[in-house]
Write a structure and sequence with these properties.
Layout (H helix, E strand, L loop, with lengths): L1 H5 L13 H9 L7 H11 L4 E4 L6 H12 L8 E4 L3 H14 L7 E4 L5 H8 L5 E4 L1 H9 L10 E5 L1 H6 L3 H9 L6 E6 L4 H8 L6 E4 L5 H5 E7 L5 H11 L5 E4 L3 H13 L4 E4 L5 H13 L4 E4 L14 E4 L6 H8 L9 E7 L4 H11 L18 H27 L37
Parallel strand pairs: 1-6, 1-7, 2-4, 2-5, 3-4, 5-6, 8-13, 9-11, 9-12, 10-11, 12-13
Helix pairs in contact: 3-4, 4-5, 7-9, 15-16
């Protein structure tokens, strides 16, 4: 079922026009059949046309633009492909995947992103790599320093365009693409393509081909998902209960706010669980150390903000816990996509507060599945906090007083007896007693409009 809904099983990567050197990398990665977005986008991109591609998260969009980039470049190309991504972690992840897929091409790829010393990335750029994967801010910085020329770019790729616009990179994108007077082949890839994104893309593209696929997300099909009902004050105790009673090899816990990340990580550490935090306010060197531990298998629980959901690519992650339900359903798909990698299974649990049913429903609609509820009879909810209890009591008293006032008003209000109807006073004998609810406000339509 997963294959028929996600992959184009009628084709192999050899049918997509890729050179032999790239196909060797595909084979080494264990890929057999392309996903539907890959089967549709790669042949068009290999012809040199501009492409605007839309596909759900978790359907292999990175390989969809990486493979034609590797296939169209030559060994002696320098600064020939520029891939723009929204986050540092995603820059690292995409660059790693490009290197793996291009292992037999002789093409060098490097990541360029903020938080790292300029000198380190300047040294890498001095070797004239063929492919640059970077965040817009650091890319522009390196260009301003004369280390990253735009005039050699043959292929400009923008990944996660919806996310880049969400976090304010619109002007940066305009500056970067607008400076490329040679009009390189341009590929925009996004999970959603709003009219705003399409307008931006077409302003820098020449007769682009728009490709929209509706295949089922790999992550949705491969992850065992469930949700747990919990009051906000019980969430820390519940996550402790889960991690101590479930066989979770490597768990990612996603929180909506950075301060919540720190609070949850501290709570778990104090209760005997080896947990580490990662979010945007941490120094890049510390984030890199945490990522090294994660990839090295020496870390059991990582509590992260949503920036990490776009850049974590570790095969051994067994569980994802949505400590906070994301308001954007796409973020949920990105989060749970950190498990069930490399053909393995995965588990995703989502904490849902009593007033968050709408958020859960929006996730189910996007994923096109019904997520079952999970219960723990041996977990005992804690007492209602004093401030919450007093607030609820005050609300209950207010509702009771309002209902009592309405009852008193109804009891004392006399209903006037109906007046005798004069059938000659108005057609049907009905006499208007008030002005109509909706009026034209003195404006009368005329033939001149």
């Amino acid at each position: 079922m997963v294959s028929s809904e996600t992959f184009d099983t009628s084709k192999t990567f050899a049918d997509l026009g890729l050179p032999e050197s790239v196909l060797k990398g595909v084979q080494a990665a264990g890929f057999v059949h392309p996903t539907k977005i890959q089967a549709a986008l790669i042949p068009v991109a290999m012809t040199g046309k501009d492409v605007l591609g839309q596909a759900k998260t978790g359907t292999g969009k990175t390989a969809a633009f990486s493979l034609p980039a590797l296939g169209r470049l030559n060994r002696d190309d320098q600064f020939a492909a520029l891939v723009l991504v929204p986050t540092r972690e995603l820059a690292i992840q995409v660059c790693r995947e490009v290197k793996e897929l291009g292992g037999h091409t002789g093409l060098e790829a490097i990541p360029v992103y903020g938080g790292k010393p300029i000198q380190t990335q300047a040294k890498a750029l001095s070797k004239n790599p063929a492919i640059i994967v970077g965040t817009p801010g650091r890319v522009m910085d390196m260009h301003a320093r004369g280390m990253l020329p735009y005039d050699r770019v043959k292929l400009a790729i923008l990944d996660e365009v919806d996310r880049m616009l969400d976090i304010g990179f619109r002007d940066d994108i305009r500056r970067i693409l607008g400076a490329m007077k040679q009009h390189p082949q341009t590929i925009f890839v996004s999970a959603t393509i709003s009219p705003d994104i399409e307008k931006l893309a077409r302003s820098y593209m020449r007769n682009p081909e728009k490709i929209v696929t509706t295949e089922k997300s790999l992550t949705v099909a491969a992850v065992d998902q469930s949700w747990l009902s919990v009051e906000p004050w019980d969430k820390k105790r519940l996550i402790e209960h889960l991690l101590k009673h479930e066989e979770a090899a490597l768990t990612l816990v996603f929180c909506r706010m950075k301060k919540t990340v720190d609070q949850v990580a501290d709570y778990l550490s104090k209760h005997g669980i080896d947990a580490h935090a990662m979010h945007g306010d941490m120094f890049q060197t510390k984030r890199d150390k945490v990522m090294d531990k994660l990839r090295g298998g020496t870390l059991k629980v990582l509590v992260a903000s949503d920036l990490a959901s776009r850049g974590l690519d570790v095969d051994d992650i067994s569980h994802v816990i949505n400590y906070d339900v994301p308001e954007d359903p796409e973020v949920y798909i990105h989060r749970i996509g950190r498990t069930a990698r490399a053909g393995r299974g995965g588990v995703a649990w989502t904490f849902v507060q009593p007033d968050q049913g709408d958020l859960l429903s929006s996730i189910e609609m996007l994923a096109n599945i019904e997520i079952p509820q999970k219960t723990y009879p041996d977990f005992t909810p804690g007492p209602v906090p004093a401030d919450v209890a007093s607030y609820r009591q005050a609300e209950q008293r207010r509702r009771e007083e309002l209902a009592s006032a309405r009852n008193r008003l109804a009891a004392t209000t006399s209903i006037p007896a109906p007046k005798a109807v004069d059938p000659n006073a108005f057609p049907g004998g009905i006499v208007p007693s008030a002005l109509p609810l909706k009026r034209l406000g003195g404006v009368v339509r005329t033939r001149r409009g």
